[in-house]
Amino acid sequence: MKKIIFALMLLLSSVQLFAQSNDVEMADALRSNGKIYVVVICIVIILVGLLIYLFSLDKRLKK
């Protein structure tokens, strides 16, 4: 159990290091063209579809 917790702590600390960089040129280009909203809408649609699928699967498994 201690090994798993230690591995998760190392993983989370490395994720914070990647979040420090401010060089996101693609996002700036998409934002300037107004296409970032299309990307966000696509991601939201995919996530909502996955959630609906998981809830319907859960209902079927409970029956």
Please give a structural write-up:
The protein has 63 residues and is mostly helical. The chain contains 3 helices and no strands. The model has no long low-confidence stretch (mean pLDDT 81).
Task: Quickly list its features.
63 residues; mainly alpha
Most strands sheet: none
- Strand count: 0
Percent range for helical residues? over 70%
Structural class: mainly alpha
Mean pLDDT: 81
**Distance from first to last alpha carbon:** 35 Å
Q: Please work out how many helical segments DSSP would assign.
A: 3
| Secondary-structure element order, N to C | HHH
Net shape: flat
Radius of gyration: 19 Å
Residue fraction in strands: under 5%
Unreliable stretches: none
Question: Helices and strands in order, then pairings?
Answer:
Elements: H1 2-18, H2 25-33, H3 36-62
Give a concise summary.
With 63 residues, the chain is mostly helical.
